[in-house]
């Protein structure tokens, strides 16, 4: 019974989505999120988000976990768009826009892929999210130790870019678990504690 439950839930979601003939823009956005949740149920994927205040080393940690310097790192707040890293056969980047459009590009060049990610997900490459992106998905090959696991790089909270905090908070419902990154210097801040409390209310494992 337990094994068939995710598929049954996915079928219910599919029926609900098909009931909307001409959804509004807001309804279409909600339906896309519902469809992604249904797809996760059938694919049996575990989504682990790396969360925290800006400039705590979240992207650096993820680069170490995947063994490639794919995500931009630096002194200024960088990550502006949530980036979902999944195991794949070859390097692929998929851009999902707020209006529902998607763009998929395959590349065999790791450096080129890193530049493509930076140009889409960072404040420098996509200031204020002028490109209207909702998320970026990246397929990373040679990742056997993290099979069936999706790692999520999130914008940091507490910087001068309010839209980064909004994007980070919007990712929380997508998380099965969260890795909350803090720094020994400076010690944990009030902003971090407030965000951590919010994470604990939304994500079951932190």
Characterise this structure.
The chain is of the alpha/beta class. 37% of the residues lie in helices and 20% in strands. The protein contains six helices and seven strands. The chain has helices at residues 5-18, 25-43, 58-66, 110-121, 162-171, 190-202; strands at 46-52, 83-87, 92-97, 102-106, 133-140, 149-153, 177-181. 31% of the residues are buried.
Q: Classify the beta-strand content into a percent band.
A: 15-25%
Q: The biggest beta sheet, please? A: 7 strands, mixed
Spell the H/E element sequence.
HHEHEEEHEEHEH
Structural class of the secondary structure composition?
Answer: alpha/beta
Poorly predicted parts: none
Separate helix tally: 6
Head-to-tail CA distance between termini = 28 Å
Mean of all residue-level pLDDT scores: 83
Main β-sheet, spatial strand arrangement: 4-3-5-2-6-1-7
Helix content: 25-40%
What is Rg? Answer: 17 Å
How would you describe the shape?
A: globular
List how many beta strands DSSP finds. 7
